[in-house]
Amino acid sequence: MIDSLQPSPDSSTTIDLTQQRQFLLDLLCQLAYKEGDFVLSSGQRSFYYINGKQVTLHPQGALAIGRLLLSSLPLDTAGVAGLTLGADPIVSAVSVVSALENRPIPALIIRKEAKGHGTMAYIEGPSLPPGAKVVVLEDVVTTGQSALKAVERLKDAGYSVEQVMALVDRQQGGAELYESTGLKFQTLFTIQELQQRYKQLQA
Questions:
Q1: In which pathway does it act (predicted)?
Q2: What value, to the nearest 5°, has the Cα angle with vertex 145 and ends 71 and 110?
Q3: Number of C-alpha atoms within 13 angstroms, CB side, residue 114?
Q4: pTM: predicted TM-score of the whole model, two decimal places
C-alpha cells in the first residue's frame, strides 16, 4: 500500500504545507506534465511524459519539494539519497531546507557507474556512520528500478534503507516492486491526481 505524503493533522504548519502541496501540484501540471507520444527510459510508450527536472530545478519548486519531503521524513533519518540525475536536485533541496529548519540531514548522490578515478566510489557525499538510516528519494517512479538501484548501492555501503519517497507515482509497477523487497513507499502525488488537476487547469 502506498502512503500519500500528507502533513500531520496536528502540525502547526499543516495549513502552510497543504498550500505548498497544492502549489507544487499546479507547478508540476504547468511545467512538467506533457501529453503526446513518448518513449520512456524503460522503453515503454506513453501518451504522457513528466519532466520532473522542470520543477525540481525551479527555485520555488525546489523549496516546496524540500519542505514537503522533509516534513514526512522519519525523525531518525540520517541522510537522503537518490540515483543521479533525476534525484540530485531533490536530495539537495531536502538537505538545504533541513539546515534551515535546524534539522540538518546530509544528501548523498548515487552514481550509475563507479567513478573512474580517485576513490572509485558509487556514492558521493558525506560519509555516514555504519547502519545509518537513509531514505531514498525519486522524482517520478515508473517501474521502480532506479530507486531500487540506489537502495542496493546504499546497503552495499553499510547503510540501512527502509523507505523510498517520490514526487509522482505513475503506478506502473514501482510500488509493487518496493513492497516485494520490504521497502515502504510514499508518494506526494499519484498520476491520477496530476492528470485530474491538469485537466482542470486546461479547462
A1: Pyrimidine metabolism; UMP biosynthesis via de novo pathway; UMP from orotate: step 1/2
A2: 65
A3: 8
A4: 0.90
Residue 82, SS3? Answer: strand
Pick from 113, 157, 142, 132: nearest CA to 52: 142
Q: Is the dihedral of CA 119, 150, 61, 198 positive or negative?
A: positive
Domain 3-202 top-level CATH class: alpha beta
Place of cell 493533522: 9
Q: How far apart are CA 35 and CA 13, in angstroms?
A: 34
Kind of pairing, strands 107-110 and 123-124? antiparallel
Cα 155 from Cα 166, distance rounded (Å): 19
Mean pLDDT of 130-146: 95
Which residues does the annotation place in the binding site for orotate?
142, 170
Q: What percent of the chain has pLDDT over 90?
A: 84
- Helix (H), strand (E) at residue 97: helix 88-100
Using CA atoms, how far residue 155 sits from 80, 110, 160, in Å, is 13, 12, 6
Retrieve residue 110's grid coordinates. 548515487
Provide the annotated binding site for 5-phospho-alpha-D-ribose 1-diphosphate. 111-112, 115, 117, 138-146
Spatial contact of 200 and 178, defined as CB atoms under 8 Å apart: no
- The string of pLDDT tens digits covering residues 93-123 is 999 999 999 999 999 999 988 765 555 489 9
3-class secondary structure, 72: helix
Query: Which segments are annotated as binding site?
Result: 111-112, 115, 117, 138-146, 170
